[in-house]
């Protein structure tokens, strides 16, 4: 649409023209397309719709409200917030186009290094990571961190979030040496700048503990996870999603240490609350169900483990996709249970299928790929030797 034509008038009308130009740009939304509409916009009193009070002050306030509501930056913020809601609900397919549109719009309207643009870049990277698309997430995280360090400073809360997120991606990619210094640095700064009980600090502490656990350094992980859960329950509440994650992670560590009596009630509690609060098919609920099944399996309770594993795999394939890292973990775990039950035909076929996908999507050297390759070999060796399925610990856990 053409911009509103300027004419000499009083200062009040001159102040209205930028708003008219803005509304012109939003013609598809506001449908101000005739001279009659513009008479109304300018408050001239000519041809006003019936029932609408005339007067310049009223019209000016109305225009300002429209400007506030429909300014591109406001619209982009609304789109971003809706996308984050979809992501929190685990609906990644609905969140993705909204976050991609928001980033493109903010780069155009606000510039590539505006704080809101940096936030959009981080949010889109986080969604890519949640979807298992690490190659798309990595450059966005790196750009977001570099931009925030330059624009906001090294210790700004948003910069700490970017550093934590990049480290989390390095861990997911199996690059523990890159992840560790970032996580240790982020936690130290978060405790000093934000405080020991700030939600951002709780996330940093949880993520560092998760990396220690992945590196089998359980003695370092345990106090961090116990501290995080205690604070999360007090500060965020017992059923907050972050608290559920903390409880699940602590239970997983107890299991890894062989302390099943401590791990089991935490996992059962977490799954029950997750199903009620997040929903039965939310990605975090799938993780909880998988972890409970794993504990049942290592305790030798295969009849309880099997339906949980099978349910988790079916939902993971539908919700996350057949090649998502969490789905690959479900494949591995179900195969290991088949092996433990002595059903080698099912176990070998599933291990082989999972290994091929891991090598293609994660790479030959990724820790998950190496673990599944070792599990496949162990299962094949036992089958060839004529052994029984073996003990619960015969297969490496992911």
Give your account of this protein's structure:
The chain has 398 residues and is an all-alpha fold. Among the domains are: 60 residues, no CATH class; 85 residues. 75% of the residues lie in helices and 0% in strands. Helix 8 runs antiparallel to helix 9, helix 13 packs parallel to helix 15 and helix 16 runs antiparallel to helix 17. The N terminus and C terminus are likely disordered.
How helical, in percent, are the residues?
over 70%
Counting helices, strands and paired strands, the structural category is mainly alpha
Inertia-based shape: globular
Q: Helices and strands, in N-to-C order? A: HHHHHHHHHHHHHHHHHHH
Largest sheet: none
Q: Total helix count?
A: 19
- Poorly predicted ranges: 1-54, 390-396
Radius of gyration, CA atoms, in whole angstroms: 27 Å
What's the β-strand tally?
0
Please report which band the strand proportion falls in: under 5%, 5-15%, 15-25%, 25-35%, 35-45% or over 45%: under 5%
N- to C-terminal separation? 58 Å
Mean pLDDT: 84
Subunit organisation of the chains:
single chain
């Amino acid at each position: 649409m053409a911009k509103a034509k300027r004419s000499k008038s009083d200062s009040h009308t001159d102040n209205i023209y930028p708003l008219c130009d803005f509304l012109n740009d939003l013609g598809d939304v506001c449908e101000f397309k005739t001279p009659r509409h513009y008479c109304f916009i300018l408050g001239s009193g000519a041809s006003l719709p019936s029932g609408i009070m005339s007067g310049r002050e009223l019209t000016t306030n109305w225009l300002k409200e429209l400007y506030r509501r429909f300014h591109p930056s406001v619209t982009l913020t609304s789109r971003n917030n809706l996308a984050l809601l979809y992501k929190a609900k685990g609906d990644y397919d609905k969140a993705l186009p909204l976050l991609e549109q928001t980033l493109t719009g903010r780069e155009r309207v606000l510039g590539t290094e505006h704080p809101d643009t940096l936030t959009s870049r981080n949010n889109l990277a986080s969604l890519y990571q949640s979807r298992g698309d690490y190659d798309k997430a990595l450059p966005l995280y790196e750009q977001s961190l570099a931009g925030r360090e330059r624009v906001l400073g090294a210790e700004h809360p948003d910069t700490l979030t970017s550093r934590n997120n990049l480290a989390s991606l390095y861990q997911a990619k199996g690059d523990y040496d890159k992840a560790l210094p970032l996580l240790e640095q982020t936690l130290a700064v978060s405790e000093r700048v934000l405080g020991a009980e700030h939600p951002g600090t709780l996330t940093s502490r949880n993520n560092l503990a998760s990396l220690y656990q992945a590196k089998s350094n359980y003695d370092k992980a345990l106090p961090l996870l116990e501290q995080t859960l205690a604070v999360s329950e007090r500060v965020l509440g017992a059923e907050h999603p972050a608290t559920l994650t903390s409880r699940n992670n602590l239970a997983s560590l107890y299991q890894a240490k062989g302390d099943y009596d401590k791990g089991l009630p935490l996992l059962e509690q977490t799954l029950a609350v997750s199903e009620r609060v997040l929903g039965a098919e939310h990605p975090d609920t799938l993780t909880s169900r998988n972890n409970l099944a794993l504990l049942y399996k290592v305790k030798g309770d295969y009849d309880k483990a099997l339906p949980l594993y099978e349910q988790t795999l079916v939902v993971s394939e539908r919700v996350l996709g057949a090649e998502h890292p969490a789905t690959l973990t479900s494949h591995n775990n179900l195969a290991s249970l088949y092996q433990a039950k002595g059903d080698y035909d099912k176990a070998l076929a599933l291990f082989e299928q999972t290994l091929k996908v891991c090598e293609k999507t994660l790479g030959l050297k990724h820790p998950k790929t190496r673990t599944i390759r070792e599990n496949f070999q162990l299962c094949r060796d036992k089958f060839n030797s004529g052994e029984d399925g073996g003990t619960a610990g015969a297969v490496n856990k992911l």
